[in-house]
Structures are given as C-alpha cells and as structure tokens.
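Box S2. Input/output pair 1.
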Amino acid sequence: MTLADPASAMPHTNVGATAAPQVRVRDPRLDFFRGIAMFIILIAHVPGNWLTLWIPARFGFSDATETFVFCSGMASAIAFGSVFRKQGFWMGTARIAFRTWQVYWAHIALFIAIAASMVLMNLIFPEGRDYVGQLNLYPFFNRTQENLLGLLTLTYVPNYFDILPMYIGILLMIPLMVGLANVHVGLAAAASLTMWLCANVLGWNFPAEPWSARDWFFNPLGWQLVFFTGFALMSGWIPAPPVNKRLFWGAVAIVVIFLPFAYFRIYREVEVLAQVRSDLNFLIHKTDFGVLRYVHFLATAYVAWVLVGPQGANIMPSGSGRKLSVAWSYMLAAIMKVGQQSLAVFITSMFLARMLGVLFDQVGRSYVTMAWVNALGFAVIIALAYGVGWFKTQPWKKKA
C-alpha cells in the first residue's frame, strides 16, 4: 500500500532533465502490487476469515505489510521527490507536512468511526460477541479524557490502528533523508541503518498507551528501512538489481528455505523447526522489522519483479504480444484501480473488515459464506476505488 496521494507515475524523460516538461506515465507494476496488497490487507483484518490461511504471511516471514510499506516508499519518491528537485528543500518539506496532516486526520477519523461502530454493534447484538472488547477499546471509553488526549498526540495507539501512525512517523523522516542524500547518498543509507539498529538492538520505540509499557506495534524506526529501500530505488539513489538467472534462483532458494520455518502446518509438526524458529524470533520480529523479514521480502520482491517482466509485460494486455483473456483483463483493471486509490481503499478496508466480521458472526463461517462475504468485501473496495477515481477527475469542472 502506498499513502502518497499522486498516482504512481514515472518520469518519461531523465530525472535530471529540466529543458522540457516531464510527461508522467503510470508504472503498471506499482499499481498492480499495491492493489494485490490491498486485497490481502482486507482479508487479513476480517476476524475469523478462513482465507487468512492462504495469504503470503503464512508461507514466509514477510507479508503484505512489507509490500505496502515498500510501495509507499516508491510512490512517495515519485509524488514528493519531484517537489524537492524542482522547488527546493523547504517546499518539499512543506509538501510532506501537508501530506502528514492529511494522514493524521485520516487516522483520527478512522479510529472514531470504528470505535463508534463497535459500540453500535454491541447495542444491536447485545447477546452476541463483545465487539468493543474484541478491539480492546474499553480503556478508551473508561478513561476517555486521558485517552482522547493520547489519541490526538499519538501516545495512545491501539493495535488495530497502528499502520497510519507508523506511516506518519516515516513521512516525517523524508526531509531528513533527502537532505542527507543531497550531501551524499551514503549518509542517508547510514542514517536509515542507524535508526533500524536503534530499534532492533537498543529497543527504541514510541509509547502506545500511558498506563503500560506497551510500544507501537509497528515501530517506524525499524520499518523505515524497507520504506526507504523503495524510496531510494525510485529516486535513483541505488540502481535496480540486474536480471540474471543466478540472482533469480538464489532468491527462489531463500523463499523455499524459509518456508518450513514460516508455515505453521510444517514447523508445528517438527520439533526441531519449531525450536529454530523460536531461537530466531528476534530476527523475524514484526514490531521492529527483524532482518530476516527484510531478507525474505527482498527475495520475494525480486522474484515477482522478474516474473512480471519489464514494465509488467507478462501481465499487461499489450506487453506479451499475446491476447490475454477477457476475465483477466477485467480483473487486472480492478486490481490496478484499487492500487491507484490506496489511501481511500485502506481506510475503508480497515472499517469494512470489522463489519464483515460482524456479518460472519450472523451468517456463520462456512465455505459458502466465506466465498460470498469475501466477494462482497472485494466488490466494495473495487467500487470505492472507481468512485474515488471518478471524483478525482473533478467532473463538475467539465463542460456540460
């Protein structure tokens, strides 16, 4: 997922060219993978959803969150990097501040909407599941004055609401990293690695609630590493890896080797694997973005990048020289549209996931209901993406 508001677009001319205006062309790969991540994130957040047994997180140390953050870094380089280059450091910083302000209020609105809806569900279904307790929101309602202040200052961050605060923290790092890269790219790399080490070795994090020692579940000091990897690639700070068989099969080998230690149906049945996984827990820790998560993500990202082909030639209708099926063409269009409107889709999917969980509680969790409830969720976020895209065209400005 990316939360950069401009569309994922790549300069058609060289980044350093200034003689003529740059024509931006969408990179279909970025939209495609962002869209896939959005569907996975929806599936993963629906309580009791059988499809979560088949998401990538079950088969490797990294999951859709890494794709979400990595693509955010790439899209941020496109959306904000040009402002830094063309209009200077301070105007770029102002642009980051404006986006941070938008994401901050999106986080506040999302929390209020979900908290209110969970109260409503408890009132409608008093004999059913305790939906307020399911999200551990009683501390907020029991100490509203204190925690309302904590909510607004991001010192109260319930676990379900931790993605956007992490992104806010990373956004605020962009001017620092751009400023360091303007001096030397190595300084930006050193700063990123230093923050990651501080999170993983020294335990630096941010408080998530005033009454306990719990920290943010997604530590921005750790997760900025994968974000700025994407940012650096799209900014040209580091070159894209070459496409060759050794690298490809090496990446495949990493994915396969990690599989038995990640897939619960395997390591739970083999005591040695379970013990090794336990011993390696600090290397796969999600909160601080353990190093093996990074290694696994880079391997899977490289494999996917090679398989889709240059500019997505192997998945795009006009890329492979062969006519793709009508069904895939429609599916591809929907995936990419969802990827293009990822902020709106993400906020909606987080709210929608709780509602779909309530729906499951009412209709049961059978194979049939799993199919149609998940399909309903997909249809909602697809329709939302097309609707948001239509509004962004500002049709009211067109001549009648």
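Box S3. Input/output pair 2.
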Amino acid sequence: MDKNFFEALSALGTENSVDVEVLVEKVKSAMLKAARKAYPDCEENITIEIDPATQKFEMYLRQTVVDDEPIDENEINITIARVFDPHAVVGGTIQKRLNIDKFGRAAALSAKQSIKGDLRDINRARILEKFEKKEFECITCQVSQVEVGGTATLIYDNTEIYLFRKEQIPGEVLREGQMVKVYITAIANKQKKPVIKISRVRKELVKRLFEMTVPEIYDGTVEIKAISREAGSRTKIAVWSNDPNVDAVGACIGPKRSRISAIVAELSGEKIDIIPYSEKPEEFIARALAPATVLRVDILTNEEKDRTCSIVVPNNQLSLAIGNRGQNAKLAAKLTGFKIDIKPEFEIVPADEAKEAPEAETDELAGLEQASEMTELEAASELGRLDGETAFEE
C-alpha cells in the first residue's frame, strides 16, 4: 500500500509539475484535516510522517498513559500501553499508530478535495509566475495536437495552452511537432484558474517579430511608428530611423533580405510592405499606398476625430492603389489614420455615355448649321430690303 501511495504521489507531482517535497507538505496538511475529523478531540496530538526516500507513511496519535479508565482517546491505560510499548510508564506518552481506514469515506473525500484545492493554488501560482511577465510578449511554443475543429494545443515550458481557430492565420495548417511563435494577448481569471490567451493574427505579433529579428529596432535606433495587418494576406509597417546614418527600411529588410524573409516564413508567407514613415501627412499617405504611384494628395480635414484626404493616381494605377477587395486602400487608411478617397487622374467616361456623345454632337452641329443658314438668309433678305429702299429713294 505504501509503495502504491508513493508511486501515485510521484505521478501526481510529475503531472502537475510540482516538486514532491512541496506535494508531501500539502498531503500532510490534507491528511491532518481528515484525521482531525475522525478524532475531533485529539487535534493537537496527531502527527504524520511521510518520507518518499524510505517510502514511510505513518500517522500517530500521542496518548498519555494512565493507571485507570481513559477519559477519551487522548489517554490510554497502562496495561494496553505496554502492549504497544513495553517501556511505557504512567504519566508518560506513547505514539499509537492510526489506521487510515478508520477515517471513513467522507474523511478520505475531504482529504482528496483539500489536495485538489492545494494543487489548484500551486498551479495558479506557477502559471502566473511563468506567464505574468510575458503578457503582451511573443513566445515560442511546440504544437502537440491539432483537433478536428482546428483548435491547436501548444506546449510552452511543460504547460499546455490553446490556440483557437479564430486566432490562427487564415489558410495556415499547423502540424504536430511544429515550432510556432504566438503573442500573449491576455491572462484571464488570474484569481482562480488563469487562462493564457494567445494569438497569431494580431498586428502586435508582427511588431514583436521585428523587434526580435532586427537589432536596430530592439536597441531603439529604428522605431516602428505604425502597423496595419490583414492576417494571412498582407501587413504594412511604417518605420523611422532616429539615426540619419541608418536606413530604417534597409535595416528591416536585412542583408540579402534575410531578416524580412525570416519574418515572412514565420507568418506562413504573408506579404509585408515596409513603409518609410514621414511626419508630413501627404508624403506618408502617398508612401502608404505602395506599390501604387500617387500623383497628388489633398488633405481635406486633419482633426483628431476626422481625418480625410483625397488621392489622385494615374488611371492605370487605380486598381493597384485600391487593391484586391479594397485591401491596399484599407491597410493604408489604418496605417495613416486617414479616410482615403482615391480618384483617377482623368475622369473615366462610362461606355454608354461614350456611345451617346457622337449623336448629341451631330445634332448640335446640325443645329448650328441650320442657325447659320438662317442668319445668312436673314442677312440676304435684309440686304435686299436695304438695296430696294435705296433704289426707291434714288
């Protein structure tokens, strides 16, 4: 029985990542509570010995030896005492070994619940200690299981955390054993059972990846001014150099595109546009619409709650500026904080209006010719009248 107990104790410690010594103290506390319920009048006289090294598990009740009838279980008659200890004397004490089975089912369940409660507290403290300082940071985890519904179980430092489908990059297929980076968005329910919330779709993940990959960003030489992201498709990131000798865009790209390639690979091929930040709104907005070419930017309003602008692009760049399903324009708007109205350089005439234009033009010309003919007739008539009058007078 003792061997089975210590095997279970070791398994419990491994399962919960708790030192056996700590677990032993928790078990002692729980067993004392159970023993005190079974022996309510002997609370101060009960002791427990648990030694994993020697696999010893004993519970004792210290009893005072008397020469008459004991008044309760804290006393024992000298005759019975000498059965347990031949050297017992009246006025002395003996350690009577207790039978754990006597505690009964209720006491055992109470002890079990107490141990569970202690383990929850241990796990809560352990999780908080491990993750609290990593909140809003990026960590590397290993995928241990991917469920049919898409939820992935990840392992970080022997702790399981869950990456739900909505927090995974669209189109990404996770595999067991794969190492992935995730962003810790929050630690919920800290007072009871902490829940670690993680994501791979937040724009903050991209920011942390750049900080981890680009030394100039980590040391503050290059600064990330803004990020807009559509996970799985495209990200725009605006960077600024605090050192005129350091090219912010070049630092992010890295030698032979090594830095940007590593980040793109981590994000499963997501495209990344690195935009040089400008304090001039017109210039920043024009750059944000890359890869499209911008001819003119007109700031309509530049108030904190209402920033709007009008953009003019070459006709052949209109679709590029807007992007597939408006993606490029939407990301540029989020990056700059402006509502963007994109217009072509030359107004495009609809096909139906183009067909009607020649007919209208013909009618207009016919009217002008008719008016011209009438003017000539009137002039001739007037000339004839004047000529007649002149002849009459003569």
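Caption for Box S3: The CA atoms of residues 184 and 198 lie 4 Å apart. The longest strand covers residues 56-66.
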